[in-house]
Protein: Aminoglycoside phosphotransferase domain-containing protein
Amino acid sequence: MESDTTRALRVVQSANLQHPDLPLVEVFLQNAANPDLAAKYLLEICTDDKGGDRFFQFVDDWKSLVKKWVFPVVPLTAFYIREVLRARRRLDVQLLTSYRNASMIYLELSLALHIETFSFLLELAILFPLEIIGIWYDIRHNSGVNSSPFITFERMCHWKCNLVDHSATGIQSPDSRLFEIHRRFAPAMRWTDVAAKMERRKPRMHKPPTRNSFSEILIKGALTIWKIFPGFIRLQTYKMLAYAGFHLYGEANSQVQRLPFGMFMKFDAQEKFSPRIMNEFNALTLVHNHTSIPAPRPIDLIVTSNGTYLISSRINGVGAGYALDECSDEEMHVIAQDLRKYIAELRTIQRKPDSTFAISNPSGGPCLDYRIDVSPVGPFRTEKDFSDSLRLGGAPDVVHRDDHQIVFTHADINLRNVILRDGRIEGIVDWENAGWYPEYWEYTKCRFGVRFSKRWLKMLEEVFDHKYEEELKIEQVYWVLDSGM
Structure:
């Protein structure tokens, strides 16, 4: 029998609420101290509400109530930060949990800013590491309502907060019950902040990036001249730019560095002909030569006796994971159509006529895909060989069909690698997993590891037309067995 909460959620989801009103009302039900009671309240409102007036009045009332909990953010002074750092040495915090599945939690800070007695709540959220099953996640640079997420675990069944004062000064610690109140209101406060930002924002008129044929000729000419110089001279130049980039922009990660003049350097300083770097360079070359997809331009590839270095152009914008929540429903539709177009273009790239293998990387060699293994696998002469290689002992009868079309595939389109600017796709990055795969692989990899972003998952169905549901079910069996969850 359908529960009241499920019925109420179905009513909300069928009401054609504009973003972000839909998730704002959903959290009224999902985060209530008594979800069944909240659901019954909402269902009573909707009884005999043929025109929907009472329901939409409820939505307005809920939005008004949440706004009363959202206060202006107080700027943090240098003195305040020093006091917080001093307090950090006096108070330990541990959240003891019993979760298994990964999920996402947002800590919203505006409420804490205005509770004088419990001002440590803000200090803890900004500067204290939280120990969650032995793994530490540092929450930094959060001083507003829409703070950055950190990974913890799904199902907030049992959690306990221990606040211990080591200063022997008798300082008053926060009441742990405030964390519970804060947790329940935080998502609603976050969506309220998103709505306010969308209302303040000017209309976005950004057009998708295009390539100018004249500038293409100039760039190709300049690169041809530059590559006349010996590799060691070019590499030293890039290393000097990397040094400048480190001081200007900070370190992206241990194997990626932003450079001045709109460039990025990816490198593997320990492996000659690194599969990761070589794969990306070859994929970007194919994409730039055969499509109009906005991808980083492959500027240079240098292979030394003990390292591989790729220089590419930089795509301006932010990852979809940071930007989708602030996109309107209309912008989400445009993003879906753009992505659909780019994937269709990608599939027009033809392999060499004399290629021996059906499933391979861009140059016809072994595939690099972290869904399968951290090391290259294959190549595979047929799709059946590829499908057989994916089979797991825990489900020996679960296997993909072997009659799919084999197409060129990015193989890692995700919330991090789709770059957005002003509500449009500015570029698609990280092509190291690209190659020829069965047609369903692009879709299932778009879903791989994604549990939290409903908007992303909904958009993917618009892109792929619900075409690969059978293949997704098989992949999900593999994912569970591979992860041991």
In short: The CA atoms of residues 84 and 123 lie 6 Å apart.
